[in-house]
Specification:
This protein is an alpha/beta fold. The chain has one domain: 4-Layer Sandwich (Purple Acid Phosphatase, chain A, domain 2), CATH 3.60.21. The chain is built from 6 helices and 15 strands. The strands form 4 sheets. The protein has a 6-stranded mixed β-sheet with strand order 6-7-8-9-11-10, with no helix packed on it. The protein has a 5-stranded mixed β-sheet with strand order 5-4-1-14-15. The radius of gyration is 17 Å and the shape is globular. It binds fe (ii) ion.
């Protein structure tokens, strides 16, 4: 039997508001996040770290970041946070998860390395990876071939099959995939943004997308549409031999009725 080295829990797309009363399509996003977080703490008390893949805020307000800062400090688990298209990169990097956004971000978790990529474009909802980040990633992977690697970012690198969402894909994702294809120590590429689960495999690495802690988007819908699936998260077990095991779990119910007829968010 192979011993588990570390369990990561991925949380994504919290869409919190500066106001404690902020609602997204009928849901108080602080309440849905609190329900998800409580289930994670109950079911995964042994989590080594939380990986939060963007859209921490919906309205980019300072008060919202301060709320999340207090909340995460109360959990006492190391949290690695990526910016999404709704985030303020500067507030995230100073208040929630201190790091220098100028450099390729590599974090050690057990015998693994997490590489966290910023896929945001200031003022836009779509995704793009900076040429200097891709070059740094290529150079890093070329030099470090011993430890297994998980790469994370906010936006999706592969079409989700929804026209409206796929307008916000990482437009230069083929450049990223071409790099990852060359390095067998890369074992997983994970993202958020699409508010739905996806599990795939590309050669030597898993492709994983994770539900939002608030509303869910209906898969394969050409236009914006809400799914009735409940908020969730993903656990990812990182094994010492470079294999992974992963699954998605959801809370039992929404706190309030969903606005299923919404035309956007
Ligand atoms: Fe989102």
């Amino acid at each position: 039997m192979i011993a588990t080295t570390h369990r990561l829990v991925q949380l994504s797309d919290l869409h919190l508001f500066a106001s404690a009363h902020g609602r997204l399509l009928g849901q108080n996003t602080q309440q849905t996040f609190a329900a998800v977080r409580a289930q994670v703490q109950s079911r995964h008390p042994d989590a080594a770290a939380y990986l939060i893949t963007g859209d921490l805020m919906h309205d980019e307000g300072l008060t919202g970041y301060r709320y999340l800062q207090r909340d995460l400090q109360g959990i006492g688990v190391r949290c690695y946070c990526l910016p999404g298209n709704h985030d303020r990169v500067d507030l995230l990097a100073t208040l929630i998860d201190p790091h220098n956004p100028k450099y390729l971000r590599v974090e050690a978790v057990g015998g693994w390395e997490l590489i966290l990529l910023d896929s945001t474009i200031p003022g836009e909802d779509g995704g793009w990876l900076a040429a200097h980040d891709l070059a740094a990633l290529d150079a890093y992977l070329s030099n470090q071939r011993e430890r297994p690697v998980l790469v994370a970012m906010h936006h999706h690198p592969l079409a989700a099959g929804s026209r409206w969402l796929d307008q916000m894909i990482i437009r230069n994702a083929p450049d990223l995939l071409a790099i990852l294809d060359r390095y067998p120590q890369v074992r997983a590429l994970v993202w958020g943004h699409i508010h739905q689960q996806f599990d795939g495999q590309r050669g030597h690495y898993a492709l994983l997308a994770t539900p939002s802690t608030c509303i869910q988007f209906l898969p394969a819908s050409p236009e914006f549409a809400i799914d009735t699936l409940t908020p969730g998260y993903r656990w990812i077990d990182l094994y010492a031999d470079g294999t992974i095991n992963s699954g998605v779990e959801r809370i039992a119910a929404y706190p309030d009725p969903l606005e299923l007829m919404a035309l956007g968010y």
